[in-house]
Specification:
The complex is a heterodimer of chains A (553) and B (76). Chain A has 553 residues and is mainly α. Chain A folds into 3 domains: 44-205, no CATH class; 216-313 and 471-553, no CATH class; 319-451, no CATH class. Chain A is built from 21 helices and no strands. In chain A, helix 8 (233-266) runs antiparallel to helix 9, helix 9 (274-304) crosses helix 18 and helix 13 (364-387) runs antiparallel to helix 14. The longest helix of chain A has 60 residues, at 95-154. Chain B is built from 4 helices and no strands. In chain B, helix 1 runs antiparallel to helix 2. The radius of gyration of chain B is 11 Å and the shape is globular. The two termini of chain B are 19 Å apart. In chain B, 26% of the residues are buried. The A-B interface holds A 187-189, 323, 327, 338-339, 342-344, 346-347, 352, 355-356, 359, 368-369, 371-372, 375-376, 408 and B 27, 30-32, 34-36, 38-40, 42-43, 48-52, 54.
Chain lengths: 553, 76
């Protein structure tokens, strides 16, 4: 069920209406039922995957929680016994004896506490491994076979392994990460385990965020997910505003520019030089409008149900550098990788040993930075392969790693430059930084476009070797599957998106509209936006509605 | 505490760590800085800050970090 399908519109309207009509007790079960119905439409076989991940992580969370409760009770018991022992020693007036009893007791408790923590870590490890194993099998089996076949071919071996027919279940990377995060957070004592299996199943499957995230944390989402919300016209209206804005980005901008991007990357041999630059820029616009539009729809639908979902973007293209860009783009994925991969790797035993060694043996700066860079490398490799089981995504991830490391290492040089040239508050310099971020990110995204590493390098090179920029003055861009009217709509749509983004710098645009405009005027504005979508959106007969780009990850 | 301030000063010399209370939330310390800090703390105080303690509240101020170090020292 595509977000852009009539079936989905009907589904959401019915679900929201039922949610507010049904009695309090039935509200969250309705959301669970709705989420599974939504997932059923993606393919009934996929239900087994989401159920398996749910069961595994639910049981792991519960076992960790039970172990912790049992261990705490036992420690309290041991403490009480020690105290009783001390009291008895005191009665006999043997101070040394009572202190000894306490020390032995403390040691015992510490030993017991550590052994129980290890047991919980084991449960967490097993749970995470099993959940990730499902993801690995469905997502990476054919990639592994592809690489094995490559090695066999390099050694001229006659045998090849056949690829398996495995369909990638919708949103599996998102819900698996969300569920794994839950288990780790229970282990880390960030929150209690959810005892009600069905409530937990709703957390994993909550339908608006199944398609492309955000990757929510249980501690955040659960606050309102199970709470029965009474109908509020304001809440539903605000959610709807966000949904309309999301559809505007998706249908008027992303889906309108999609044919042009597709034409250029489908037959790359015909589109070199300045066309590659167009791919960079057009795809950046398409991806931004597609992904942020999708997230707007997700957050808007959840908001209509009274459930706040974490923001996933903070105007990323206004970032000064790539590191900042990644703190503002797909935020929930970035923080997931930081909390659950980067930090644990960085402070693991081997890494601390490496850090100690590097600080003693390498120059001061490199010595301090080496462990950080090793952990970053792992994170970016994982980020790449999480986006897709192919080398182009891995190289894309590592490309980001290289750029971030370079900018980190060049920081002293930048500092020297800024000492000599004062750029504080300079709009021109800010524009330069933003332009640099856009160009760098868009260039790296070429790996995502061409999906072939050597081809991407070759095409990138043609920007400097095939000098056909003069075509921009002619009608070359009109031969990409979209016409003059499309470009005008795209330009105006992008301008509107830019203006809204600028307004959003100092707080929510909807809050500002609510404060400044009376309701009829505000709703007039959103009705116009809806009409713009109906008139200028890319949909309808003869139009092949495209899936959201991040859905495939 | 002074030793901790010295370590922090090496990472960002221009910050007043006596008064700053939003080191992470204010984006003064990023994840790279935090890991560098954890390594230095492990060296100087012989205390390992594991991933479960790596939350903004523990790194937002020098005092919060100092409290964490002391808590971990006591646990050991």
């Amino acid at each position: 069920m595509l977000f852009t399908s009539y079936k989905f519109y009907g589904f959401v309207i019915l679900l929201v209406a039922l949610y507010y009509v049904l009695p309090k007790k039935a509200k969250w079960p309705l959301l669970l039922l709705g989420s599974y119905v939504f997932y059923y439409f993606a393919g009934w076989k996929f239900l087994f995957y989401i159920l398996a991940v749910t069961v595994i992580t639910y049981v792991s969370g519960l076992l960790i929680s039970r172990n912790k409760a049992r261990a705490e009770a036992r420690i309290a018991e041991m403490k009480a016994l020690d105290k009783a022992g001390k009291a008895s020693s005191d009665d006999k007036k043997t101070a040394a004896g009572s202190s000894k009893t306490l020390d032995v007791g403390k040691e015992k408790r510490k030993h017991y506490k550590e052994s129980q923590k290890k047991a919980r870590r084991r449960i967490m490890g097993i749970g995470i491994t099993l959940a990730l194993l499902i993801l690995a099998v469905v997502k990476y089996t054919n990639f592994t076979i592809y690489n094995i076949n490559g090695i066999l071919s390099a050694f001229h071996a006659p045998k090849r392994i056949n690829f398996l027919t495995i369909a990638l279940p919708m949103g599996i990377s998102f819900y698996t990460f969300q569920a794994v995060g839950y288990v780790i957070d229970v282990y880390r004592d960030r929150h209690e385990a959810q005892k009600n299996f069905f409530k937990y199943a709703l957390f994993v499957s909550f339908f608006p965020q199944l398609v492309q995230g955000p990757i929510s944390r249980y501690g955040d989402l659960s606050k309102e997910l199970f709470t029965p919300h009474a109908f509020s016209g304001r809440v539903v209206g605000r959610g709807l505003e966000r949904v309309i804005w999301g559809y505007f980005k998706k249908l008027v901008i992303a889906d309108r520019i999609f044919p042009a991007v597709n034409t250029m990357i489908d037959t790359p041999e015909n589109y070199k030089g300045m066309f590659v630059f167009c791919v960079m820029m057009f795809y950046a616009l398409e991806l931004y409008a597609d992904f942020t539009g999708g997230i707007d729809i997700t957050i808007g639908i959840a908001e209509m149900l009274g459930i706040p979902v974490k923001e996933n973007f903070e105007r990323p293209f206004f970032s000064k550098n790539i590191a900042e860009y990644w703190r503002r783009w797909h935020i929930t994925m970035g923080t997931w990788f930081t909390d659950y991969i980067f930090y644990p790797i960085s402070v693991s035993g081997p890494m601390l040993k490496l850090g100690k060694w590097s600080r003693n043996h390498l120059p001061e700066h490199a010595g301090k930075r080496l462990p950080v860079y090793v952990a970053s490398f792992v994170v970016w490799f994982t980020t790449g392969i999480w986006h897709g089981a192919s080398w182009n995504f891995i190289v894309w991830g590592l490309g980001n790693f290289v750029v971030i490391m370079f900018s980190q290492e060049l920081e002293p040089l930048y500092a020297k430059f800024h000492k000599k040239v004062n750029t504080d508050g300079s709009t021109a310099y800010k524009c330069f930084q933003v332009g640099r971020t856009i160009l760098l990110m868009s260039a790296l995204r070429l790996f995502d476009c061409y999906r072939d590493v050597p081809l991407t390098f070759k095409m990138f090179g043609t920007m400097f070797t095939t000098w056909n920029w003069n075509l921009l003055r002619g009608n070359a861009l009109l031969g990409l599957g979209i016409g003059r009217a499309d470009y005008i709509i795209l330009a105006l749509g992008t301008l509107l998106m830019f203006i809204v983004s600028m307004f959003g710098r100092s707080g929510s645009v909807r809050d500002k509209l609510e404060k400044k405009l009376p309701m009829p005027l505000r709703w007039g504005l959103f009705t116009i936006l809806l009409l713009i979508i109906l008139v200028f959106g890319a949909y309808g007969l003869g139009y092949d509605a495209s899936q959201f780009i991040y859905n495939q990850f | 505490m002074d030793e901790l301030i010295t370590i922090l000063k090496e990472i960002h010399p221009d910050v007043d760590y006596e008064t700053a209370t939003n080191l992470v939330d204010g984006k003064i310390l990023d994840s790279f800085d935090i890991i560098t800090l954890v390594g230095e703390i492990a060296d100087k105080f012989d205390v390992v800050i594991s991933a479960e303690y790596m939350i903004p509240e523990n790194f937002n101020s020098a005092q919060a970090l100092w409290n964490l170090i002391q808590k971990l020292e006591d646990d050991e």
